[in-house]
Amino acid sequence: MQCRDFSVTRGAPSRDHAGDSGDATLHQRSRRKAVAIAGLVGALLVSLPAVLVGSTSVANALTAGLPAFPDNLLVFVNRDFVTIEGFSGHAGQSALVQVTRPNVGVVGSAIGVVSGGDVAFEVNHPGGYCWGAGTGVNVTPDIQAGDMVSISFNGQVAAATTALDVYASDAVQNGTTVTVAGHIGADVNRDNFEQRIIEPALVDTAVGKRDIRAVPGPLTPAPKGAYSSGIAFDTAGPNTFLATYVFDNLADATIAANAALGERAMAWELTDPAANRQGMTIAEFGEPGGPGMGGCPNGPLQSGPPAPTNIVAANVSNGIKLTWTPAVAIPGTPAIEGYEVKAVTSTTNANEKNMIGKRIVNPAATETTIPGLTAGATYDVEVVSYSSAGETFPAVHVAPVVDYTKPIVSALPAGGSYPVPQQVTLKSNEQGSDIYYTVDGSDPVKDGNTTDAAIHYTGPIPVSGSSTTLKFAAFDPSNNLSDVVTEQYSITNDPVPAATTFTTSSVGLNSVTLNWNPAAAGGTGFTITGYEINVFDSAGATVPVKTQNTSTTETTATVSNLAADTPYWFTVSAKNDVNSSYGPASAKLGPLTPQGPVVANAGPDQTGALRNSTVTLSGLGSSSTPGVTYAWSQVLTTGQTSADLVTLTPAANQPRDATFTLPYYKYPMSNSPLTFRLSVTVAGVTMTDDVVITPRSDVVTVSTAKWKVGDFRVTGTSSPGSTVTVRNPVTGQVYGSTLTDALGAFDFRMRTGVPTTKPPSVVADSNMGGTSTPVNVAG
């Protein structure tokens, strides 16, 4: 398993082979705080569908919602692994990564926690998460061109990219010329393409780097010499490419042609104005797919299918009846073709056990009976699914049971008066029960047998008449009969209004003011006559703690007499002038937390704060009654230490406010968002609210890091005029600092005090708040 190349997403694919610098840098976004007023934004999202939030839709890109620098998604299609860069504004949060295949659905998923560093986390790569982590989709997806990889937070898709249709073949050498042929799909932007050969041994040659690169266009000398390269398209037919490298000497060409880490085809959906490559696909010749580390699940063709669930085996006359819920194939794996069931005797005769069974060739089957068994004998029953990938392993074992308990059968919805026709579902509490029903008022079962009028239940029953009597009963797998249940339905056929949606709402003293869109009345000429608001004490509650009705068409209402500082959830529904029943309720809005007599408001989160600038924390909107006191404090979050503390100064003539100077970044600061807490006290009652200040992250890269006895040199880029410090990322040892020039370049060099042994790697920190990725030191 080869190591990840940290120079694939930064820098434009220009003719001078730009893009040699390090990988992504830290980037922070605001994090909302889960308190009363600030929680309103998140609360409003509860009623919205999953959409791309905070993402960028770019013309000419395949995927809407591409990540914006420094956030990025890198898809290594051959190795079925994904790197998530950035998203440090979500540091500490859980993110859902999904691989979705057109016309198939989700074929792979995993949940990981965002680190807050340049690399948020990786999936199916050593040190990262396995596919299936936290999701139960326990398969390593075979990522293919056209699959969409997305990242979501709290059910909202934050960014996505599409795996692009590219791949490279093995290098071919002809003297000092090395060529790499390959494929580039018709929908891939050829300007956003590069081919590389990775071989660390090239560092010690005239090439001086661990890789060589070719970009579209004629042969052009590499910046450091040693070879020229270029890419031509369609030379071997449509949608092909040929990368050509011409070396100055045969030895270097031979090393490149036999590279251990191999050939790559790299394409990306977008090059942004700062030359960052967004939505990257990396295809690596010869790399195997499947699990990328021990303990990860097999690929879709490496394991048998899952077994059916809810398996029940019941003894019946001269046999065993089995019922189950059909198995569901893991997306991206072969379709389930059917099931095998076997009954194996518990006794052994001459080293043998008798076995009898069936193969069911219907993947939707839910039951079967194994006949011809010996009365009084005991059996072990095995059940498996089968597909072209094999059978379930291990098989599911069930023991037949003797059941004398009659099942319980019910209808949903229950009988009653409804304004519109209903689809009635019948259900038994015992898996595999057979249900029979009638709609003419007669009994479906008499003297233990079904009547001529009985209908075998196979799916929802449409009920549309003004008066319908539904009777039903169930036989369980052991032939126990339920009671006959009767439900009476009345359909008035008076349409009710449609569901509406909430708009911006607000909280007040022991109250919440709700606003919503007008509901559609349900028919031409109908008029809305009022709304009903239901208040719940949890997101999952079904019984309201309070109901408030209006008798007007107003789409706003204030719900009063609520408990202060207690979260609530709300729905609203409408009724019209032709039906006394309320229509369907809106989606729940919440949590909204009514204010108490003491209010703490730390203000909105702030992003992009500049280093060495003054930041003001404002308590505007907090209580201002006589005798009130305000106190600001800093709250250290996960990963932060005393090095992240700042000095807070009360603002002159404004006791609600405080200021601090955002310090220059210096290791071991965490370079993560800072959290501050406002405590407001009135008459011994204290309330608090948090605000998050996110520093601007500088983009820091390391281009080269070289060591030899008496000489240690590191070059790279940062913001113009910033101070860059070079250190050991493992021990924290600082080697020294230097300033960037007017173009942002830095060149750190030690000739005295040079480490006596070569450091394994280095990072560069900017005092403006940025850290490069670790870069291996050559020498």
Please give a quick description of this structure:
The protein is mostly beta strands and 779 residues long. The protein is 2% helix and 41% strand.
Structure description:
With 779 residues, this protein is mostly beta strands. Helix content is 2%, strand content 41%. The chain contains 2 helices and 57 strands. The strands form 14 sheets. It has a 7-stranded mixed sheet with strand order 5-2-1-17-16-11-12, with no helix packed on it. A hairpin with a 7-residue loop joins strand 46 and strand 47. The longest helix is centred in the N-terminal third of the chain and has 8 residues. The radius of gyration is 34 Å and the shape is globular. It starts with 39 loop residues before the first helix and ends with a strand. The N terminus is likely disordered.
Query: What separation lies between the terminal Cα atoms?
Result: 24 Å
Average pLDDT confidence is 87
Structural class: mainly beta
**How many helices?**
2
Name the strands of the widest sheet in spatial order. Answer: 5-2-1-17-16-11-12
- Beta percentage is 35-45%
> What is the number of beta strands?
57
| Main sheet record | 7 strands, mixed
Percent range of helical residues = under 10%
Q: Which spans have pLDDT < 50 for at least 5 consecutive residues?
A: 1-6, 11-59
Rg over C-alpha atoms, rounded to the nearest angstrom:
34 Å
Gross morphology: globular
